[in-house]
Write a structure and sequence with these properties.
Layout (H helix, E strand, L loop, with lengths): L9 E5 L4 H16 L3 E7 H5 L10 E6 L6 H6 L2 H25 L7 E5 L4 H8 L3 E6 L3 H11 L11 E2 L7 E2 L5 H4 L7 H6 L10 E4 L7 H10 L2 E3 L29 H7 L6 E5 L8 H14 L2 E5 L12 H5 L3 E4 L4 H5 L4 E6 L3 H10 L3 E3 L6 H11 L3 E3 L10 H12 L4 H19 L4 H17 L1
Parallel strand pairs: 1-2, 1-4, 2-3, 4-5, 5-8, 8-9, 10-11, 10-13, 11-12, 13-14, 14-15
Antiparallel strand pairs: 6-7
Helix pairs in contact: 4-5, 6-9, 11-16, 14-17, 16-17
Bound molecules: uridine-5'-diphosphate-xylopyranose.
C-alpha cells in the first residue's frame, strides 16, 4: 500500500467549554470518526477532570488546551469580555503548541481545525499552520440569521420595534428575538460574543451548522447566499437516529453526574404520562419562578421528572421534595437523551436551549417552551408556530411565567384539542431528523463531502 494512504485525515476539534457546546461537537466528532477521520478533541484541563473522559469514545483522543481559567466556577464568574480576551490569547498559544506536538507524532499531523464559532481565533490558528479551518455553529440557522444581520449592521440593536422582519424568518415579535438583541445591559459583552461568531467566517474553508436543512429551509437558503453553510445535524448520539451506528447512548464528557434512578423510575410509569422538566446546564431561575413551576407541577396531578441542578436546589419550596414524592422525582442531572427516548415521557417543559430543542424534536417529544435567555425565545417561537410541536408559556405583566399559564400549556400539549396534532408533527420531525443523518440524507451528504475533501488532500 502507498505509504501516504496509512495517514488518516486528522481533525482537531475546539469546543467552547460548556455542556451545550461540547455535546454537539462531540457528536459531530463521532460521526467524522465513524467515517474514518482521526479526531483530537481539545478542552481545558478542568473540563477533563470534572468529567469522565473515559466515556467519550474509544475513537476520540482528548487533549488539553488552556483558556486561562481553571474551573467552571471561575469561568462562570468571569466578565465575558475579559474571558474571551484571555481565552483568545491562551487558547491561541496552547492550541498552536498542541498542533506542533501532534505533528511530531507519526501519522497524527492535523489537517483541519474545527472551531466552535464562539472561538473565531481558531481559524487564525489553523491558517497560521497552513491547515483547513472549519467553523461550527451550535445554534439554529434562524438564530444565525438574526445575529448575522446585527453583524452586518442591517439590524440595529437594541431592537424596539414591535415586529422584526428578516429574510428567511417569520415575522418576530420583540419577545421572540434572542434576548441579547433586545437587552444588552443585563449581560454586557455577550452580544459581542454572539455577533463575533461571524468574524472572518468568509475565510473558513467550511461552515457547519448543527441543524437540519429541511427544518429551517428558508433561513438556510438565505444564509447560503452569504456563506457556504452546511447543516450537519441533529448532532445527537447516533443510536437514537441511525441504526447503522450502535454505539454510545450519551454524548460523553458530561460535566454533571447523571442520577441513575431516573430510568428505573420511568420504567414504572405508563406511556406518555410523565412531564419531563429541565432548563439545561446554565439557566438560573429566580426563587419565585421555581415556586410557580413547583405549584404548576403539583396542580397538573401528573407524574413529573424534574432536573434541578445542585446549584439550584436551595430555591425549591420548602418540603417540596417530600410532598412531591410519589408523583414527582427530582434529580440533579439525568441522561437527557435516554429520558426523552423513554416511552413514559409525554411532554418536555424546556428552556428551549438549542440542543434540548433538537433532541426533543429528533425523539418526537412535544414541548412546552419556557425560554430563559439567549436564543431560546426564538427556538420556542419555531417550536410553537413553525414546527407546531408544542406551545410557549408566556410571562405575565410582571415578567413571571405563572403556575396557571404553565398548567394551561402542559394540558394543551398532553391532552388538549391540539395534542394529537402536535404529537403527529413531532413524529414527522423525528422522521425528518432521522432521514437527514441516515445514509444519503442532507446532513450525511454534507459530512461525507467534508470527509471526502479531507481524504482527497491526504490520500
Ligand atoms: C446553551 C444554550 O442555552 C443554548 O440555547 C445554546 O444554543 C447552546 O448552549 P444549555 O443552556 O445548557 O446550552 O442548553 P442546551 O442547549 O439544551 O444544552 C444542554 C445539554 O445538556 C443538552 O444536550 C442536554 O441533553 C444535556 N442535559 C441537560 C443532560 O444531559 N441532562 C440534563 O439533566 C440536562
Amino acid at each position: 500500500m502507498d505509504q501516504k494512504r496509512e495517514h488518516k485525515p486528522h481533525c482537531l476539534i475546539l469546543p467552547y467549554p460548556s455542556q451545550g457546546h461540547i455535546n454537539p461537537l462531540i457528536q459531530f466528532s463521532k460521526r467524522l470518526a465513524h467515517k474514518g477521520i482521526t479526531i483530537t478533541f481539545a478542552v481545558p484541563q478542568d473540563v477533563l477532570t470534572s468529567s469522565s473522559a473515559a466515556d467519550i469514545s474509544a475513537s476520540i483522543a482528548v487533549e488539553t488546551i488552556s483558556d486561562g481559567y481553571n474551573s467552571a466556577a471561575a469561568r462562570a464568574d468571569a466578565d465575558p469580555r475579559e474571558y474571551l480576551v484571555t481565552f483568545k490569547k491562551e487558547g491561541t498559544e496552547s492550541t498552536s503548541r498542541l498542533i506542533e506536538k501532534l505533528r511530531e507524532g507519526r501519522g497524527r499531523a492535523v489537517d483541519c481545525v474545527v472551531y466552535d464559532a464562539f472561538l473565531p481565533w481558531g481559524l487564525a490558528v489553523a491558517k497560521s499552520k497552513g491547515l483547513f479551518g472549519a467553523a461550527f455553529f451550535t445554534q439554529a440557522s434562524s438564530v444565525n440569521v438574526v445575529y448575522y444581520n446585527v453583524f452586518k449592521g442591517l439590524l440595529k440593536v437594541p431592537v424596539t420595534e414591535r415586529e422584526t422582519v428578516l429574510p428567511g424568518l417569520p415575522s418576530l415579535a420583540v419577545s421572540d428575538l434572542p434576548s441579547f438583541v433586545v437587552d444588552q445591559e443585563k449581560y454586557p459583552g455577550v452580544l459581542e460574543l454572539l455577533v463575533g461568531q461571524f468574524d472572518g467566517v468568509e475565510d473558513s474553508d467550511f461552515v457547519f451548522v448543527n441543524s437540519v436543512y429541511e427544518l429551517e429551509e428558508k433561513a438556510n437558503e438565505w444564509m447560503k447566499k452569504s456563506m457556504s453553510i452546511q447543516t450537519i445535524g441533529p448532532a445527537i448520539p447516533s443510536i437514537y437516529l441511525d441504526k447503522r451506528i450502535q454505539h454510545d447512548k450519551n454524548y460523553g464528557l458530561s460535566l454533571f453526574k447523571p442520577d441513575d434512578i431516573c430510568m428505573r423510575w420511568l420504567q414504572q410509569r405508563s406511556p406518555k404520562s410523565v412531564i419531563y422538566v429541565s432548563f439545561g446546564s446554565i439557566a438560573k431561575l429566580e426563587k419565585h419562578e421555581m415556586e410557580e413551576l413547583a405549584t404548576a407541577l403539583k396542580l397538573t396531578g401528573k407524574h413529573f421528572l424534574w432536573v434541578v441542578r445542585s446549584s439550584e436546589v436551595s430555591k425549591l419550596p420548602e418540603n417540596f421534595t417530600d410532598e412531591a414524592s410519589g408523583k414527582g422525582l427530582i434529580v440533579s442531572w439525568c441522561s437527557q437523551l435516554e429520558v426523552l427516548a423513554h416511552d413514559a415521557i409525554g411532554c418536555f417543559v424546556t428552556h428551549c436551549g438549542w440542543n434540548s430543542t433538537l433532541e426533543a424534536l429528533s425523539l418526537g417529544v412535544p414541548m412546552v417552551g419556557v425560554p430563559w435567555w439567549s436564543d431560546q425565545a426564538t427556538n420556542a417561537k419555531f417550536v410553537m408556530d413553525v414546527w407546531k410541536m408544542g406551545v410557549r408559556a408566556y410571562p405575565d405583566d410582571g415578567g413571571v411565567v405563572g403556575h396557571e399559564e404553565l398548567v394551561r400549556c402542559v394540558n394543551c400539549v398532553m391532552e388538549g384539542e391540539r395534542a394529537e396534532e402536535m404529537r403527529e408533527n413531532a413524529r414527522k420531525w423525528k422522521e425528518l431528523a432521522k432521514g437527514a443523518v441516515n445514509e444519503g440524507g442532507s446532513s450525511d451528504r454534507n459530512i461525507q463531502q467534508f470527509v471526502s475533501t479531507l481524504m482527497g488532500v491526504t490520500l
